Amino acid sequence: MKKLKLLSIAPLAALPISVMSATTENTNSQPKTKNLFEILRFNAQFEKQRASLTGLAAVLIEQTQEQQLTNIKELIEKYNAYFEEFCNKYITQDLYTKPDTVAWLSGHMSRYRFVLNALTRVLKIDDVLNNRMTNATTGEETEQPASAPVENESESVNIKEFKQDIDMKIKEEILDKTISDEAINAEKATNQDHKKQDAYEKVEDKIVTIIHTSLLELLKTTDNKLFDLDFFVDKLLEENEELKNILIKLENDRESLQTDLATAQKDKESLQTSLTNAENDKKSLQTSLTTAQNDKESLQTSLTNAQNELKDEQKNNLTLKWAMTFVSILGVFSLIFLLILLLLLLKRRKKVEDKD
Among its keywords, does the record have Transmembrane (predicted)? Predict the structure, then answer.
């Protein structure tokens, strides 16, 4: 367990100071240091690891506490290995691009101090030292946040000595005549790149040793919740609960979306049926329209025929009328002729009778 407590802080030391500064902004009763998983969210260098962490956290929801504890141990060791790889590569960045050896060493020392400053921010070293200095000056006790860990005087001294010791050791290494001479000679040996690399590697090894040794000493003398595995277990369980709630919400959203999708599918089928019916109605109306047009043409033809028949009948009636008129006139004249003839016969008969 002690080993795991030491390992658990290692990834935090590799974070940029801009990230670490975000963890000390809150001055309320909540702890100023965010948990590992919250910090990693803001660090692009750990993006891939964060993705795997999120995936692991989702898996841990369904596991027992014993399984969770085992996986968390493996996770911390994984991040510690990543930190070791980060430190080993950190100082070799742009290794042969600076001609000035002292400037090169100073630049890489600044990078290591950059990492150390980030570590001190996580450990709230600056706040502790400021509180102690204020207390020493004013003689008043500075109120500590309720949920923040309480550091004792020896811890504050250890941390302060650690900062001073690491800076002093780094400066000594930069000014160390043997290392400087080796590095400068390597710079001059432009045709002997392997010597230059060997010299730089010696510098790297000593610096890495200083950092790691001092860091381990600090961890051994510091009692902080950041080194407590149970703290990370609780935080991970909280994270799991949040993820579980998110998963539940997503599941509800998924079910809602599935319901909406099913409803939309039914609406689509209904609309498709309506469209098919409309198409059929259109075809039926088109057929009816064609039939009506044909009936119209047929009626038009019948009307034309009827009009022609009417005209013919009217002509026939007119001819018949004139014929009847002629017959009537002829009958009248015939009757008159017969009357005249009858009168003549009567008159002649009378004359005959008179003669007799």
Answer: yes
